[in-house]
From TrEMBL:
Xref: InterPro entries: Gln-synt_C, Gln_synt_N, Gln_synth/guanido_kin_cat_dom, Gln_synth_cat_dom, Gln_synth_gly_rich_site, GS_Type-3, GSIII_N
Family the UniProt entry places it in: Belongs to the glutamine synthetase family.
Residue ranges of every copy of the GS catalytic domain listed in the record: 163-593
One Gene Ontology biological process: glutamine biosynthetic process
Ranges in a coiled coil: none
Protein's name in the database: Glutamine synthetase III
Segments forming domain GS beta-grasp: 69-158
GO MF annotation list: glutamine synthetase activity
Domain of life the protein comes from: Bacteria
Amino acid sequence: MANCSENRKSVPELFGSAVFNDDVMMERLPKDVYRSLRKTIDEGKDLDLTVANAVATAMKDWAVELGATHYTHWFQPLNGVTAEKHDSFISPTSDGRVIMQFSGKELIKGEPDASSFPSGGLRATFEARGYTAWDPTSYAFVKGGSLYIPTAFCSYSGEVLDKKTPLLRSMEALSTQALGILRLLGDDKTQQVITTVGPEQEYFLIDKELYKKRRDLMFTGRTLFGARAPKGQELEDHYYGAIKPRVAEFMRDLDRELWKLGILAKTKHNEVAPAQHELAPIFSTTNTACDHNQLTMEVMRNVADRHGLVCLLHEKPFAGVNGSGKHNNWSLQTDTGKNLLDPGKRPWENLPFLLILAAVVKGVDEYQDLLRISVASAGNDHRLGANEAPPAIISMFLGDDLTALLTDIETGKPCGNLAEKKLQTGVRVLPDLNMDNTDRNRTSPFAFTGNKFEFRSLGSAISIACPNIMLNTIVAEELRQFSQELKGQADMPKAVNALVRRVVSGHKRIIFNGDGYSEQWVEEARRRGLLNLRTTVDALPRYLDQKNVELFRRHRIYTEAEMEARYETIMEEYVKTLNIESLTMTGMVRQEIIPAVSGYVSELAQAVAGKRAVLSGLPCTAESQLIEKLSTLLDRAYAQVEELEESLGDPRAASENILSAATHYRDTVIPAMERLRLTIDELEQNAAREHWPYPTYADLMFSI
Ligand code: ADP
Ligand code: MG
């Protein structure tokens, strides 16, 4: 818990106090060392070992002052979590004492035992060992007595085994292509284009004591059974409602912990479902945003624990109320501070804006599959298309004015510049675009919201790396194509007009401003030829389509082998998740639910027998009918458990053909789980409270 002196610190004092950031570097590093390091950070220049040694020593001294005894290379393996292995700074001296030491070599490179991280078979084909390499673009920090060094993770032969490396590559690809466009449009000042991201994180908080009483929550992060509580979210009294004192204390502590780590935690509020909340940071560079979101999730769990709470990050902890997502707000910014997705007051003249908008429209349409894949997981399958989150169909919301602008460009005469055309066709007045016209259409998976796009299909538990890798690379590719087309054009506004026009007429099917939750949209989307990849298993195989392999190869994000590895890893995770859920279910039913209900039935039977012994004519309808009902349900549950267990089959077979295993889980195992759940939930509604072995939905969601 934050100690007293920390509690007294003002927020500006506290902010970043555990981060080896630019201020600390400037203060602690010799000038020339600082300059070399800055060059490495800003321009990706290699760092020589003497500089690395100086940085390492300064970092270590600083970390030790903050109480650190260890350092760790912190990385993001393919399973979407973070990994760390801690080494202490101690180094023995000849007289039997120790000193604290940390070298440049240790800073730059680590060699964790890579064999236990998912690699989708990559290491088997290539090289067993892996190494981590310092990512100087993300600041090191101190947490829990260790110096954390953000790193990338690769195999020895260079195959990427993490999520950070491709993310960094995609940022670079987009910067290169966007710069190309800016140059063509006469901008020679901008040196770099940065993708910015602000991820809004949803989560649930429940009481720790109750959590510990449910194996499903402990093993799978969600409830596998649970009859609906009499009250859910229908009164709409939780969203933005007053924050309860215990939650407020948690949030206060969480904010301070995040601020110490330099995380720009900004907004907090109650969400739609009871016990659900949200935290949003101020946006930052994508790489930092990704590191910070991983840290935020971890700190949320730890702080909750200190408050006797558990933070559930699963996409669907409770059936029947909203699940949790993560909105990925995304934009492009020049190093001169200009937001390229800001339409400005005269968007029809804003050529960079029009081109990037067109690139996003074309890219989202051509790579719907990749965007859907980037958010695919067993957990998120519960949300997409379930009328609480965007549908599994990818489309874009642009709002009335932007749509009108694009339509005018599409239908306008091919001559003249955009400004004139605007006057001719009289598009509505646009200056208030930022405020009112990007309405709060929450049903769209991908919405323009004033000066950024908000990708809303992400699940709460996933790393934001993958969705951003997709977005950056897709848009980089479209901008590359645009550059080729525009190169050498004398009349740039005219050429841009023609290009945007063609993009709009070729790709407008992806633009949809209506209600994404409606049945009509599913029909309409089908007519438009949009993909509707409802489950992870429907989506994933398209990852390896030729056009996708080519996309990533062209921009040097992934090799085909790396893509295959990723495909394998995600599919395996899907199968394993469902396998764990099934086994947890069967265990709970066999070991806890059947004995509990059977005990209750026998109690009822004794009550009937007792009554009859006293007076044979006493009415026993309630008990008798209940005995009958519960016994029927018990038998059904028993049969369904057997059925579920049989459907799991031999887990070894799964690894031989991952697609058929995953398909089997989707088509056979999930329905068996659902049938069993129906029976168990009915049992819960009919069993005596004291005989039910678990806290109920009402207990879990209304206990804090
Ligand atoms: P909402 O109404 O969806 O809550 P907000 O305006 O509060 O929208 O912003 C939500 C998130 O969008 C915040 O995390 C914010 O930092 C982020 N955001 C704002 N501008 C940008 C930008 N230019 N690039 C990336 N993210 C941004
Ligand atoms: Mg939002």
